[in-house]
Task: structure prediction
Amino acid sequence: MNRDALFCDGTQDYVSPAEPAVNEKVFLRFRTAHNDVEEVNLLTGEDSHAMWKVQSGDDFDFYEIEWQLGTEPFRYSFEIKKGEQIWYYNRYGVSDHREDYYAFTIVPGFSTPEWAKGAVMYQIFVDRFCNGDPANDVEDREYIYIGEPSTKVRDWDQTPAARDIHNFYGGDLQGVMDKLDYLQDLGVEVVYFNPLFVSPSNHKYDIQDYDYIDPHYGKIVEDGGDVLPPGAQDNIHATKYQKRTGDIRNLEASNELFARLVDEMHKRGMRVILDGVFNHCGSFNKWMDRERIYEQQPEYPKGAYVSADSPYREFFHFFDNRDEAWPYNGSYDGWWGHDTLPKLSYEDSPELEQYIMDIGKKWVSPPYNVDGWRLDVAADLGCSNEYNHMFWKRFRSEVKKANPEALILAEHYGDPIEWLQGDEWDSVMNYDAFMEPLTWFLTGMEKHSDERRTDLWGNPDNFVGAMSHFMASMLTPSLQVAMNELSNHDHSRFLTRTNHIVGRAEHVGARAAEEGVNHAVMREAVVVQMTWVGAPTIYYGDEVGLCGFTDPDNRRTFPWGKEDKELLEFHKEMIRIHKEEKPLRKGSIKLLAAAHNVLAFARFQGDEQIIVVLNNSKELKEITIPVWLSGVPKEGRMERLVYTYENGYTTAYDEYIVQNGEIVINMGRHSAAVLKPIRKGEKLK
Result:
């Protein structure tokens, strides 16, 4: 039996309809080599059901069975027999034994937004992207945060300081508006913003007010008050900051600007994802008001830190909850002990839960019409696993009612399977089934640049094993919208990882992040990113050669006017290929070849195929690839769409002969190629 020819997955070619409704009938298919097996059986629970051969071609046979779904998840795998041989097939692949952990799963009624499947996403850390409105810049000593005054950085090109949290470069939403032509020309389809709501830090994961966009990102129409005098130790007299972030006219003007920005992006065919930080808020938050920002503003109720009679007292857990502990009760629970990040105490307050549900709905509804949420540290929310799941089930229900096309992505490290059962998150930021395995394979570096592992560098077993395991943890609709990043605001820049320097900027110096980087390996990574299953997500500046160790060094400013133009054009070319070639959106994926520092895989859908080949070694390689396993005709020709090599890349036409189902391709050092079959009757270019 030809084991390599056995294939099935959860895409529309093998499950029809691909996202079936509750109580709907579904057709399940399985592929074998032509006339190669005696029977194929569908296994579910303790039962085995014979499948029928419904299609027979030159190379493959397809077996099919109709199945009536109910309301519960349907789990299944396959048994394939030929004489004494018996093989089993599941999400992980071919096995000599049944492994129910990797069973295919269909959740009736679960679907992810069509627009997000394979969408080209772009992550913007707003303060470092573009300053379009200097009038809203944070001022020197506008307020104190974690013992240090806010600072306005006047040199856009200055690398972030080791203590960067209170330094502001001035990027804002007007800057994003000004650069929409750039994003559109790049080919971006979705923009994911790091948090935008009122917050005192430059990263804004310490929310001060969930109802409004920060006026320092939006619009300051009513300014006034004073910055703090030198030596000030608190924010009681930070009247300029209080005015800017508390005056309703600034808040409403900022929300209006954001609504206009989203509307303009929608007109250009771009979607918008917001960052939802609902596990914790910030000590500046109007519900807590530890900084006493709102205490002197009569239009705001007293915060839970300030008064025992605060309407928000139950929003937080106070270790000393006696009335005598007020005013100014600092005994609240902080996330991981951080008093700047008060943990939200949902179990004690149905009102808080409802408030956050309303926030979830507010921003995906008119007039803002945001297209989805990315959920920060989502598995940490609440004080128990049981409550966490209950919360996210309700959040999904509420948000999808408000906007059925909204996407819900979560930040998660480790196996997300218990949240990806079809009734909580749509998908995840894809660390375990993309960023991490690819980084180890191409660079041998840990994703923070904290460790170097030469045993994992170019190791195909580690790459294939990790990808297969973690991809098998996701339902197919989740996999197709997973956020596939090379870099982001929490990890070192991928280009920096290519130099193999272990360390952080405060130890080895920021300049080391740029030394000895390998653009050829970066291009290999982009090829995989733009051809793998999921939504390729570019972290702002990666496309123009921005470097940086882990945060805060990874939050350098966008180098307008100093871009790596060749890398930018390469990104545009790969994005064009990603968008034009149908299999790259929702097609199947199959590994075709794997050796030390060598990978070849196929994406295929219907009668279209794309072949991707990587040589990550420092030697020239002749690689033989069995392309017929993806449906490429056994005799014919393939054209090269792009080839990237040590000193650049080319889109010049070249073609390869397919003989007996294989191509032989010569690959240079640190190279990658993307190929597609030439169909009979197609003219040569």
